[in-house]
Amino acid sequence: MGALENLIGLEDIKTQVRGIANLLKVSALRRAEGLPAVDVAHHYIFTGPPGTGKTTVARLMGRIFAAAGELSRGHLVEIDRSGLIGGYLGQTALKTNEIIDTALDGVLFIDEAYSLAADTDRYGSEAIASLLKRMEDDRDRLVVIAAGYPKPMKTFLDSNPGLASRFTETVEFPPYAVDELVALLYGHIIKHGYHLDGSGEEAVRQLLVQKVAEANDAFGNGRYVRNLFDDLITAHANRIAGTAAPTRTALMTITSEDVNDAAG
């Protein structure tokens, strides 16, 4: 659970995942005492915009399930529509089952799962039907997490009664606040041996305040921060490369000039 607690933000999600972990722990203790086990299917809907930690938490949940003895491996298989849909009707069921086979004893993470539920999409319906059968048949060996934006994921659940009955718990991932985005960026900076001077700190905060104010559903959140870090070190390198014999401090220090160049 340490890796979960070390994640920036996501406090409500941490509470929810701790509850899942506690249920798994007590269920294992009850089994050890010969007490009846409650048959609970562990399939989840993750909703939220890109870059808010959905895949990271899914990977950690695999480890939690493995540690509790509920899954023998706990690995993560990440897939989207293109990985499930075949080139013709009939092939999709085969392809979907092959992917599920690779995820057995672990977690199958379906990103943008709502794309399977278009009204006229016979291929998507075929994939969903195959998925539902395996979620029931292999419920002791498989955790399925379907992820996407909140409204489309509601449409996904409403598209087939079997989905709502199998995905019984939703975990909502909110966009990161400015302070959380700053903390994420500092994590990258410190990890890689850089630091921001005073002007750089102020410029970064102003930039992230602006980005959050302008954000729409497509804003990358944590992904944007990772890309920003890459742009910062490129701008820093461009500035330092022209310096004769730069000092150790100069090689580490990101300034407002670098931030402005990175922001474009």
UniProtKB/TrEMBL annotation:
Gene3D superfamilies: 1.10.8.60, P-loop containing nucleotide triphosphate hydrolases. It comes from Euzebya pacifica. Keywords: ATP-binding, Nucleotide-binding, Plasmid. GO terms for molecular function: ATP binding; ATP hydrolysis activity. Residues 40-177 form the AAA+ ATPase domain. Belongs to the CbxX/CfxQ family. This is AAA+ ATPase domain-containing protein. The keyword RNA-binding does not apply. Pfam families: AAA, AAA_lid_6. InterPro entries: AAA+_ATPase, AAA_lid_6, ATPase_AAA_core, CbxX/CfxQ, CbxX/CfxQ_RuBisCO_ESX, P-loop_NTPase. The lineage of its organism: Bacteria, Bacillati, Actinomycetota, Nitriliruptoria, Euzebyales.
